[in-house]
Amino acid sequence: MEFGIIGYIVLFAVSLFVLLKASNWFISAAEKIGLAAGISPFIIGVTIVAFGTSLPELATSIKAVFDGVPGIVTGNVVGSNITNILLVLPLTVILGREIILDHDVMDIDMPMLFGSSLILYFIAYDYQVSYFEAFLLLGGLFVFLRSSFQASPPEKRQKGGVSIQTIGLLLVGATLVYFGADYTIFSISKISGYAGIDPEVIALTLVALGTSLPEVVVSVSAARRGKAAIAVGNVIGSNIFNSFAVIGIPRLFGKLQISESMVSWSLPFMIGVTFLFVLVCISKRISRWEGWLMLLLYAIYVAQLVDKSLIH
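The structure corresponding to this sequence follows.
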């Protein structure tokens, strides 16, 4: 049954909402189970939480590979990484307060963030991702997690039972993540066909924006509570996980082709944005005027994408 473009836009919005809500349920239940199993809260933070923040991108990317629209995968990752830096952080600074960084961020996380962007570009340079390159990306993720563990002081472990409700929430969340991703990709394909817009462009804009909305809310809330540095940690961890896992894992399920425009325009722009972010953070603070500058760059980026899609 055909709904028309308005119907598929509504389906896209509903599917994306279900995907985000289900991801939140899944990660909440997984955290509780991890604590009950006696896993360190810090390890949960850099593994389960990092996985959870990128779960919508990962789920839609795996589904896109199965459905034969691999352009959505790289569009998803690159769009999300750009949106995190040029939208999530600026809104955090503008609506919250200036962000002050600590030394560990600059010494450990920033080099890994920029390095993951460069690795992704060089892997994508031949317009495809091989199995070997997929495992290379996953190896990069392992190095990041290992360095995070080593840089962290020991955490006190918590123990307790796991309720039936928690297990049920985990299973329901996982099930709805699957269906949310399924119908998100389905609606993107239909909208693309009706509007004559490349699915990759939709992934770079609408999907990236939608999956970043929860991070905007959490980051702004943290900034207003005087914990603005949490926003930087979320962005860095999410972007590194996206570059390594959300490209590497879907490739294990099927071929991953990368478009010429992605290699010539979107990926270099992502690297430039990441480098700008590193430069801004050298002073160990992100001011409001820098936030407005990044927000302006995001508007230019979206306008350029829309212009390119209309031309084609």
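The mean pLDDT is 81.
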